[in-house]
Amino acid sequence: MEEESRPAGSQAVVRALRVLHCFRDHGPELGATDIARLLDLRTSTAHRLARTLVSEGFLEQDAVTSRYRLGAAVAELGRALYRHRGLYRIEPLMESLAEATGTRPGLAIRSGSRAVVIAGEAVDPEAGLSLYIPLHASAMGKVLLAWDPAADPSRLELEPLTAGTITDPDRLRAELERVRARGYAVNDGEFAEHKRTVAVPLVDAVGQVRMALALRADAAELPVERFPELARTAQDFAPAFQRLLLHPAE
Fold it and tell me: How far, in Å, CA of 168 to CA of 104, rounded?
């Protein structure tokens, strides 16, 4: 529904941002009618918002189909995030962690109901592209939820992605308690079948969990018996990541 309680200028900003989120969630190209349906807007309003985003470089419009896709400004912001967060500084650490464990390391932060992988094989710093994964179906997401005192599993959309995905709020709540108790989270085919992940928290100078550090591999290469070992290795590397990314000045 369109917001009526916000000032008009604020409403326009929120709607424009939600237009961009549509491309994150619903595909690479959308028409104005698609955007209007997804956001419960008039088609004319969707057209106006999309054209404004085109004028600022956040969207592009296909001259033949008139459909919209993400523009260069989005990639530029992604590259800026990579630089401003100092993610280039952890590349040697990521390589060392991969070599030590035989896995594919990744780093994620939270964005609403998703974890955003901002470093690792899923990220292209030159293109500004990252991977969004649901919090409830990923080890990184569980870490980011487990240490969030305001997290409420009953308010999440617990979409079933595989047969192993947790879709019951009470089960997820119990899983988050286990994550806190043992200090790490696991994902055994919950987001993608035949993939396994172990993740640990990265904390800032005041003890808040700000990121999740994960080790991922095919199930055939990562038996569940290795989960505790990999968690200990990730925890051993965590202070180095924290010093580079979550220093007190941030």
Answer: 29
